[in-house]
Structures
1.
Amino acid sequence: MAVVKLFGAWTSPYFYRVIWALKLKGIPYECIEEDLLNKSPLLLQYNPVHKKIPVLVHDGKPICESTIIPQYIEEIWPQPSLLPSDPYERAMARFWIKFADDKLILLALSPSISKMYRASGEEQEKAVKYILEMLETMEDHGLIGGKKFFGGDKISMVDMAFGAVAHWLGVIEDAAGLKIFEAHKFPRLQSWIQNFKEVPIIKENLTDRDKMFALLKRRREMLLASK
Amino acid sequence: MADELVLLDFWPSPFGMRVRIALAEKGIKHEYREEDLRNKSALLLQMNPVHKKIPVLIHNGKPVCESLIQVQYIDEVWHDQAPLLPSDPYQRAIARFWADFVDKKIYELGRKIWTTKGEEQEAGKKEFIECLKLLEGELGDKPYFGGENLGYVDVVLVPFYSWFLAYEKCGNFSIEAECPKLIAWAKRCLQKESVSKSLPDQEKVYGFVLQLKKIFGIE
């Protein structure tokens, strides 16, 4: 039986995109937790170009990038399917996956780089404005038609690409002392977040909120003190 | 019913060129419409409301946006002619990785070279060459990134070759001196009609960049 290994870090929503894909398809894997401040030689060997997690290693062969890995997983293990089979629907799904990736990276809703809790004043304001624009686009264009998930009735890779919004955004808001996402302003998004988090595999595989809040709070205090 | 295909594009856009090459490789009939980016058409704004950008591929009235997605879509719908992505899933993941790398790095670094000066420009040039060298490493001894034939990564990367003269003149350096293998690869690609008909002349692009610099007040 082929061996699947996954290199990741517990705080990263990009890492979770892959975990969700593997778990939804019932694929057993070995998880290797990386210390992002002290990356292992093995990780650097498997991802020499970007030196980042997540990295999936299947049969000794590495696959990098959290939007590329799930597509690979989908092709090797097609059921249950996480991407539409119709080429046009698939192009639409890829459009939203790319949108999520571009916006969340620049933002970024990954605790290690988020400008929201790291910055203050003008820089933070810009980051907040950027997030609001992203949320508005998701609400007005992505979730149009009152769908349960981005792809319709079933969870797909698009929902997983936006996972950071469903879980990580809230923690980062709290750590930064901000309120950006107001449920009454984004009714479709609010519904989607609830639907997403109610999927059993997702519910059981979300990073520990309290642990992350404590970490972000500590980091923010350190950063602001050093300015 | 015949397929109706419209491409909303802008002649110097490397992203538009990718789609032009893919359509030409597969011999797909389509209508090309030039957009004036200072005066975007109602059709463009309607078909790409999120980004309002070109290229937009409209297939039987339905829009597909983002060049990498458009190339993959074309490859999937017209899968019998000139396949661009490999058939093996692992090789496909590798191709997607390098296409993603080109997308994340080459455009931004190129932009840095023609819009900045001094230390910032030097840093841009250095990283740009490093990225091209990494791509040379991936190419290896193969004639194309796709192997014996033009593939996904070739289509994604070769459009930037039309901008190389502009980068060289603005940055005062020679890309060929640093990356001869890549230049040889680009010239090999240009021998294909699908590529030579889709890429504008380097001098024309340079003229366009000089115009942009004037408009934006960049020295």
2.
Amino acid sequence: MLAVGLVLLLAAGLGQGTTRGVLREELLLRPLPVGDVAAVFQFRTRWDADLQRGAVSHYRLFPKALGQLVAAHGVRELHLALTQGFWSTQSWGQPPLGAPAGAELWVWFQDTVPDVDKAWKELSNILSGIFCASLNFIDSTNTVTPTASFKPLGVANGTDHRLLRYAVLPREVVCTENLTPWKKLLPCGSKAGLAVLLKAERLFHSSYHSQAVHIRPICRDASCLAVSWELRQTLTVVFDSFTSGQGKKDWSLFKMFSRTLTDACPLASESKVYVDISPKNKEKDLLEVTPTPTSVHEAIVQGDKTTYAVYDLLSPMLFNTSRSLNVQLKWKRPEDSSELSTPIMHAHRYVSGYGLQTGEISTLIYNTHPYRAFPVILLETVPWYLRLYVHTLTIITKGKENKPSYIHYQPAQDRKRPHLLEMLIQLPANSATKITIQFERALLKWTEYPPDPNHGFYVSSSVLSALVPSAIAMKNVNVEESPLFTSLFPSSDGSSYFLRLYTEPLLVNLPTPDFSMPYNVICLTCTVVAVCYGSFYNLLTRTFHVEEPSRGGLAKRLANVIRRLRGVPPI
Amino acid sequence: AVSVSVVFLPGSVPADLPRRLPYGDVREERVPVSCKSPAVCTARPPRGAWEALRAVPYGDTFLPRLSRVAPGSSVCWQSCLCSQPSLLPLPQGVNVYVGKHRSALVRAGQGLAILHARLQQLLQVVSLTASSIAAALSDRVPDGQLGPDAWRHLKSSLGYEITFSLLNPDPKSHDVDWDIEGAVNHYVQPVLDKLSLVANFSVDSQILYYAVLGVTPRFDKESSSFILSAHSLPHVINPVEARLGSSAASLYPVLNFLLYVPERSHSPLYIQDKDGAPVATNAFHSPRWGGIMIYNVEVPASPQTSLPLHVDVDMLRVMEVFLAQLRLLFGISREELPPEFLVESPGNEGLADWELDRLLWAHALENIATVSTTLTSLAQLLDQISNIVIKDDVASEVYRAVAAAQDAVAELAEGHLHSAFQASKEAVTSSERAFFDPSLLHLLYFPDDQKFAIYIPLFLPMAVPILLSLAKMLREARQNKKEPTKMD
């Protein structure tokens, strides 16, 4: 029933859509509790064409490279995120759109794809070419097929999880070379619209940077007889404005991006900047935004009432007074209490133990809701070279054992596939749940070590998916109208919202051999052999004969000199 | 080999034609192609052969009969000869009329010699010439021997991707729309259907915004327009190409056709050739890459028109240029026709049968040359690394490639173009598969010189006493020579 409602809203929001496609760009600026500023860009391209049939080959707003990819490999849904840094939920609050450190790719394929593994391999290779990322390192040793954690976000008739592939490369470093191809997919590039702010040298001089591409089919109209394709390109960046702004929490667009906005992308049908000015701690008018926003929008986002100051770049009023838009935010008086409102759910993960033989992975999940319990799905992907002891799996909440209601465990195969552990755990109200599992470190073959093996081996973040109870009853808001990601994860009912969190990636040391050892051995043996050979050779080839001492040693000569001086005949 | 059957119209039989019909005559012509690798030189130059089948007493009915000559698997030409000008519907001064299919009308005098000469000319036009062979083998011919045209042709491949891109660098002023689907169906698809014998084609299109040329055009005061001069054209493509993107779906070479709508501040924009005259089509092509056409938008008289200005591209004008460029890139241009020749327009298909024959021929030739180069370099690799492992499947691919190549050569000699082309395609596929087999990677094998480097710690200290004693022996020998035999 909700799906129908969603569809209605979609149709209402995009009534003007033509076959040419619709582009909408949004920027959300959100001051974070500790004084950082999060900027979230989202570019939505919607195309009313059926990519799947392969008949479409004439691209307008939708990028050709991605369209061909979707058509050629039978992709139903594609989600790729490249992230540098870690979103710390505890100090920054819930992420607008979570992503694990490194590269994450999950794809739903069509049920007509004959060989999903082959399509997955080819797809990751092509994506690696498109985004200049090392996605070609995705192979069977880091690919899993989760059963419960990832559901299709678009229109789907059936969720056969065998059509899903999920992989994370936690070692991946994201930098300018990944940003440039991402920007190239935008219809306006970085020449106009909100994308002019995306200046690589500022974006990567930040605490957190995450760029993502989401492709999914959505309903074209209310009847949902035809599908449209939606491409969302999102970019989240967190600036540490507190340290760069001499201890002040004030910020402006120019300070953060060293650019200002001058116009909207001419192809966009919507171009808006949202500034989160929701009153914290019931204190109003603590902050001041200049220039005056064109409108104020109220929405319920992630279970909390949020107020946005909206700047509509398409409205002619905005650029009447000044040629460029430089949104500024000033705090009227320094916020004395820096008390953090802890998010309802947050999690940590660490590795413990000593020595290089065994260890323990511990995951801590907190539910800070005062009175409501909720279930969470935990997905752990552990590489095969950490051999998990499943019998040591313990889940403890408030000192008591917590039995998961669903466990899916797929053991690893050496050099073939990783461990996959999925559990549905009930989190009681106001509790901390500790999940521990022990492992043994495997010895790798010497060619399997990556460069710099003493740095350690990464274990990808575990994924927490939950329906978190919301603080405020959510009305059936117009999903398409509200900014950013609320429309990507529609809420199932009014009392809870979907949240996906990623924990820290782990860095585990494996027993590492001394790689110069073979050469050292060769050198040492060779030297010994050479010395022996040399002495033998000398022994065999030299002739020995007794030699008469002719002039004597130094002492004798010295004595002779003295004797000569004294006039005594030499010895 | 090209076999030409000649049908004489009544009253046109040359006096010195032997009485006995059919009468045959074979002409052979060698085309010298100097090659780098000797294997390539086995490519057969085409021979001209003709035979006069019979003198037909048909009157005006020959034209329908001629056009019915089956597009068989072998190249078979039919020529009609006539000495009476009134019988042939040819304009004055035109002596040879080449039809859409494999037929031609030739007006010859009474002598057999003139007939020979005319047929020779005809064969020059419709069959492979020395220059087109050289173009097909351009990669294997030493530099400096080829004209610029030889480099223009696309290399033979199993498939091609054709991408039409509309570049709109100024979406604020121009809202450009093109009916590319319709244009492709109307103008491009018939040509590609005809060409589908040669390769697989896929067509797609895209619109790119804010894509600018790499050169700032010069303002010309006289015509109050902007000018791109010919010498700056090579710099135009690079920044655009970065935006074009490569195809995700296949590995075939891409042919790019760009339609550039100049910015409002730079329009109208015209291309000037080397002499300074504007190019009529306002387009240029880049060899083996594609073509660019500049499409100027008429500036409305009143400056009050609201921007963006909606522009619908006239696809007929654009596709005329792009199709001409496509023909050029495939090397099916009509080159240097003798003055008394008239060639029938190929119509909507854009390609006459005999042109397709020539293309097939050239591609088959090029494929065979590619196979021989690939296999030669594979053999060289095997010579270099003695302990390389050739798996059975690689070996069978090599055998298959050699067999198919020989097959192609034989079929080509017979004149069976289609089967020769198919065989050459198979040969290319097999040889490439063998050459690019992952087990044949050069780096998989440990080079010998590095093995020696590892054993240097052994060899170096062992060499020291040997060298020292050698030096000592030399010194002693020299001393012995200086003071010969001083025995006690």
